Amino acid sequence: MFDAELLDQPRLRAWLHEGMPKPGQPTPPSSGDGVPEWPGRLLAYQPGQAMMRGHDVTVWQRQMYARGWRIDVDGVYEPRSAEVARLFQKEKGLPADGVVGRQTSEAAWAAPVT
């Protein structure tokens, strides 16, 4: 029997909204071990400036959500995304600046979930 409450689950909604394959949507290259290569763009939130948006933001947010962080998977790098980045960086012993660069991005896939 179909359980309509399943549709209200955050992970399912995030997957339906951002995780499903979409025609024409780029897929990040993989290093062969399931870890996407760093896209080469620093993800940062700066008050007073336009928020960063894009597929690279969505990919990082989706990974952080999968690791158990409370974060919207919407492709917009907003204050909560920066806060999650800072907390994750602090937890992993990285410089806690809230900017997702190569080191933070790679740790999101390689570092143990704690």
UniProtKB/TrEMBL annotation:
It comes from the Bacteria. Residues 16-38 are annotated as: Disordered. Residues 54-107 form the Peptidoglycan binding-like domain. This is Putative peptidoglycan binding domain-containing protein. It comes from Nonomuraea pusilla. InterPro entries: Peptidoglycan-bd-like, PGBD-like_sf, PGBDSf.
